[in-house]
Design goal:
Elements: E1 2-7, H1 20-27, E2 32-37, E3 50-51, E4 61-62, H2 64-77, E5 82-92, H3 95-101, E6 106-111, H4 119-125, E7 128-131, H5 141-152, H6 165-171, E8 185-186, E9 189-190, H7 200-218, H8 220-225, H9 230-242
Helix pairs in contact: 2-4, 7-9
Bound molecules: ligand 4GX.
């Protein structure tokens, strides 16, 4: 998978893709990340990329021409790229969208700065607009990094084994169960006994019950969409009977 990032701050992207899992994916050639400085596509002597908004008001707006030329240059290499603008006005990013994007072979991510981008560039060039959440960043760069991280880990070979694709769709409906590692006693707190029992059926049941408990307490909205087995429903009923008052928003 190829990612082309259009930005005024290409240096922001160096270390996040040099470390750990994504760093290895780059070295293995599973992902290619290229930053493109929008300023290099400005035609004037001073390489101006922003200007005051028509109609007046605060701040600056990114000019259309440098961005248009940068995108046209990428499209001249590969006409079938998918172009994404990161903006709070976009559709909210989630695991389902990450999975959809993982099906593309080449994504272009446009990172806006200032008050935004000339509307005509959006109309002409955006295939999709995505927001990573309802808060305001100083620019689209961190949003692009979040998207690349979430998409890359879905690609074959990026996470050591071929786990997770399945676990991720699972994540869409339930929160994860709690994890423990050595020592078995940490600051006076014991690991739940069942995890030391070696009884794999009992461990699976306990983990499923804990996933259901956490989801009920913290993200009850997810349970409405989850496909639950008859055993799940029985476990959940027990959980709700035992802790009816502990649900998030009910006063913890
Ligand atoms: N999820 N920002 C973009 C500049 C901007 C404003 C309007 C286009 C239109 C954000 C987010 C985000 C801040 C990135 C404003 N560009 N991006 N930037 N939340 O807050 O993606």
């Amino acid at each position: 998978m190829k990612f082309d990032i259009l930005t005024l701050f290409p240096k922001m992207f160096s270390s996040p893709f040099e470390e750990s899992i994504l760093g290895k994916a780059v070295v293995k050639g599973l992902i290619q990340i290229r930053t493109i400085n929008i300023r290099d596509f400005a035609l004037d002597k001073h390489q101006v990329v922003d200007d005051a908004p028509y109609g007046g008001g605060q701040g600056m707006v990114m000019k259309g021409e440098p961005i248009a030329r940068a995108i046209e240059w990428i499209r001249s290499e590969n006409p079938s790229v998918w172009t994404i603008f990161l903006t709070p006005q976009g559709k909210r990013f989630n695991q389902r969208i990450a999975q959809e994007l993982a099906g593309h072979s080449h994504l272009v991510l446009l990172c806006g700065r200032y008050e935004g981008i000339d509307e005509r560039v959006r109309e002409l060039f955006a295939d999709e607009e995505i927001s990573i959440g309802d808060y305001v960043l100083t620019g689209g760069e961190l949003a692009a990094m979040v998207l690349i991280d979430a998409v890359s880990r879905l690609l074959p070979g990026v996470l050591g084994s071929d786990r997770s694709a399945e676990e991720d769709s699972f994540f869409l409906s339930l929160l994860e169960y709690p994890q423990y590692t050595r020592p078995s006693n940490f600051r006076g707190m014991e690991v739940p006994e069942v995890l030391l029992s070696g009884n794999h059926a009992a461990i699976s049941r306990w983990r499923r019950a804990e996933a259901l408990r956490r989801t009920w307490m913290r993200r009850p909205d997810l349970l409405e969409k989850a496909s639950l087995s008859i055993e799940d429903r029985e476990l959940l009923e027990e959980i709700i009977e035992r802790d009816p008052g502990e649900k998030a928003g009910d006063g913890i």
